[in-house]
Amino acid sequence: MAEVMQRRSLLRGLAALGLGAGLAGCNRDDPTALNVTILRNTLPPQLINRFRQEFPAQALRLQIKTTPQDIFKQLEVNNSPSQWLSLGGAWLKLAIETRAIKPLDTLPHWANLEPRWQQLVQRNAKGDPDPQGKIWGLPYRWGTTVIAYREDLIQPTGWRPQDWADLWKPELTQKLSLLNQPREVIGLVLKKLGQSYNTANIDQVSGLKPALEQLRQQTRFFASTDYLQSLIMGDTWIAQAWSTDVLPILNRYSNIKAIVPKSGTALWADCWVKSPQTTDTTDGGWLEFWSQAEVANLFSQFSPAISPFLTDFQANGPAKTLLLPNQPTFQTSEVILPLSPSSQAQYDQLWSEVMLQGAQ
């Protein structure tokens, strides 16, 4: 019922902006319509309107999905009606391996993409990053993993969190929530130890397992959905969180703050990918639109994420500076990339050993 209510609220809001009919399936019978699958609440309605104004001859039909898994399932069945779909960077390897997406023939404004975003989408046929590989998507929004905390509960301790190492402080025992994502959690421990999120041979990282075990003992629960509720209620003091989850609540709860860890953090991005059923030689203006600097700047203002094509870093307001860390921090932050099978096995083994031990 809650899901139904959320969907109804979304459609009411879009209808108020004159977009409800389009998102609900306008142009359903138009064979020339551009079909795009998006994740709910990720595209600012103002910019959907703008796309229609810039491309008045191009009918647009949007299909809304609730989770990234729903979008991948649509690709997996290999009969997607959409030419373009929003896919998280973490799904690219699997999508390429299973031939659920097609490489792009051309990519507008490729030279304007920061190298880390180019590396994310340039892959070989196995889905691994390869500077000689084909381009498999256009990154259009990104965010960070942050530390969110209850300022009022932390203040009596006389310190504020600045970096991942603070999560091991004794006063935080059973006061943490961490994402239920092995690469995110093991990655923050690696970062604390001066290593990379994408370290290939973690068996050789001194002190990694003991540090992860200590962090588990600090942690009240692991979750990747609805995890901020405990922070709001005061059951936890600190949450490892995705920036797009945190930004919407900062203005509602003045006692909740967030920081990007000084030693660097994980970066993520969503990409426009091409359905294998697509035979069109043009993108209907879709990729060109989202890679325009002006649209990128507006997207970054109206959305809790940032466009990789952003050029105006001053027009995003105080809260958005959370996504625009200072250059040294940004340069030491990393996109989490796929591992080789042998490296992935090391991560899986470490996570299993530490989590199973904690459950005993």
From TrEMBL:
Location, primary (coarse class): periplasm
Q: Where in the cell? A: Periplasm
Q: Which InterPro entries match?
A: Sperm_putr-bd (IPR001188), TAT_signal (IPR006311)
The UniProt keyword set, sorted, is: Periplasm, Signal, Transport
Q: Which GO terms describe its molecular function?
A: polyamine binding
Tell me one GO biological process term: polyamine transport
GO terms under cellular component: periplasmic space
Concerning PANTHER family, the annotation shows: SPERMIDINE/PUTRESCINE-BINDING PERIPLASMIC PROTEIN, SPERMIDINE_PUTRESCINE-BINDING PERIPLASMIC PROTEIN
Can you say what this protein is called? Answer: Extracellular solute-binding protein
Q: Which organism is it from?
A: Pseudocalidococcus azoricus BACA0444
Q: Taxonomically, what lineage is the organism?
A: Bacteria, Bacillati, Cyanobacteriota, Cyanophyceae, Acaryochloridales
